[in-house]
Design brief:
This protein is α+β, with helices and mostly antiparallel strands. About 65% of the residues lie in helices and about 10% in strands. The two termini are about 10 Å apart.
Length: about 280
C-alpha cells in the first residue's frame, strides 16, 4: 500500500482474469457494458470509498492465444475521521503553544504549560503508531507532520528555559546588592552605638547629665540623617527595580526574535505540508 499521503491516499487494485487451460477457440471471455448499476453492486466497508471502477480486455500470447479481462478498482480513504480525531487535536495543541507566548516568563508557569503541551503531542504520536499502516515504501507525511510540530515545540521549550535563566541572573544580582546595602547600614548603626558608649565612660554624674542632653540633641539630628538616608535608599531601590538589568533586556530581545521566527516557521511548515498532501505521490 502507498500510504505516503495518509489519510488522503488513493489506492488502486488490479485483478486479471484469464483461463489457464483453454484458449480463445475453446473459451471466450466477454465483458458487458458499464452502467451505474454495476458500480452500485460494489459495497465499500469501513474507511474506503469507491472512486472509480474500470475494465478492459487484453490478449496474452504464450503457447495459446488467450483473452484476459483486467479490472481496475480505485478507492479513496475516508479521511474525515482522521482529520477530526488526530489532525485537529494536534493543531489545537500547536495553537496553545503559540498562545503560551503571551504568558509571562517569570514564575515558571509558562515553562510548565509548554512541557504539558509537548507531552500531549507525544501521546498523539503514540496513537499515530497504532492507526498508521505498517507497509510503506516512504515515510508518511503525517509522521513528518507530527515530528515537525514536536521539533518546533521542543525548540520553544528550550527558548523558554534560556530566557528564564537570563532573567534569574538579574534577580540574583539584585539580591546580592540588597544584602550588601543591609550590611552597610548595620555596620553604621553599630559604630554609632559603640562611639556613644565610649564617650560616656569615666565621666561624673553632672557631666554625664550634660552629655546626656547633648547626646539627645545629637541623636535627634542623627535620626533625621538616618531617615534621610533611608529615604534615599528606598528611592534608589525603586529606581533599580524600574530599570531593567542587562540580562533581562537580552532575554526580551531573544524572546521577540524567537517569537517572530517561531510564528513564521509554523506558517511556512503548515503551507508546505498542505502542498505535499494535496500534490501527487
Amino acid at each position: 500500500m502507498r500510504v505516503y499521503r495518509f489519510p488522503f491516499d488513493i489506492q488502486s487494485c488490479t485483478i486479471t482474469f484469464k483461463s489457464q487451460s483453454y484458449d480463445d477457440n475453446e473459451l471466450q471471455i466477454a465483458d458487458r457494458k458499464k452502467t451505474n448499476e454495476t458500480e452500485n453492486q460494489f459495497q465499500t466497508q469501513d474507511e474506503w470509498v469507491l472512486k472509480n471502477f474500470t475494465w478492459n480486455k487484453g490478449t496474452a500470447e504464450n503457447v495459446k492465444k488467450q483473452t484476459t479481462l483486467i479490472f481496475t478498482i480505485t478507492m479513496q480513504r475516508w479521511s474525515a475521521l482522521y482529520i477530526a480525531n488526530f489532525l485537529f487535536p494536534v493543531l489545537f495543541f500547536l495553537s496553545l503553544d503559540l498562545a503560551s507566548f503571551l504568558i509571562s516568563d517569570t514564575g515558571g508557569q509558562k515553562l510548565g504549560f509548554k512541557i504539558t503541551v509537548l507531552l500531549a503531542v507525544t501521546v498523539m504520536q503514540l496513537l499515530l503508531n497504532e492507526i498508521l499502516p505498517g507497509s510503506s515504501d516512504k515515510i508518511p507525511l503525517i509522521a513528518i507532520f507530527c515530528i515537525g510540530i514536536f521539533t518546533l515545540m521542543l525548540l520553544s521549550v528550550l527558548e523558554t528555559i534560556l530566557v528564564m535563566n537570563l532573567i534569574d541572573r538579574d534577580a540574583s544580582s539584585q539580591e546580592e546588592t540588597e544584602q550588601n546595602m543591609k550590611k552597610k547600614r548595620e555596620n553604621k548603626l553599630f559604630c554609632f552605638g559603640s562611639s556613644k558608649d565610649d564617650d560616656s565612660a569615666g565621666k561624673t554624674p553632672f557631666v554625664i547629665n550634660e552629655l546626656f542632653r547633648d547626646e539627645q540633641a545629637e541623636e535627634s539630628i542623627n535620626l533625621k540623617m538616618v531617615l534621610e538616608e533611608l529615604k534615599e535608599v528606598l528611592l534608589n531601590h525603586r529606581k533599580d527595580e524600574e530599570k531593567e538589568g542587562y540580562w533581562t533586556k537580552m532575554a526580551k530581545r531573544i524572546d521577540k526574535i524567537f517569537t517572530a521566527f517561531y510564528f513564521s516557521s509554523v506558517v511556512l511548515f503548515l503551507l508546505v505540508m498542505c502542498s505535499l498532501w494535496m500534490g501527487d505521490d
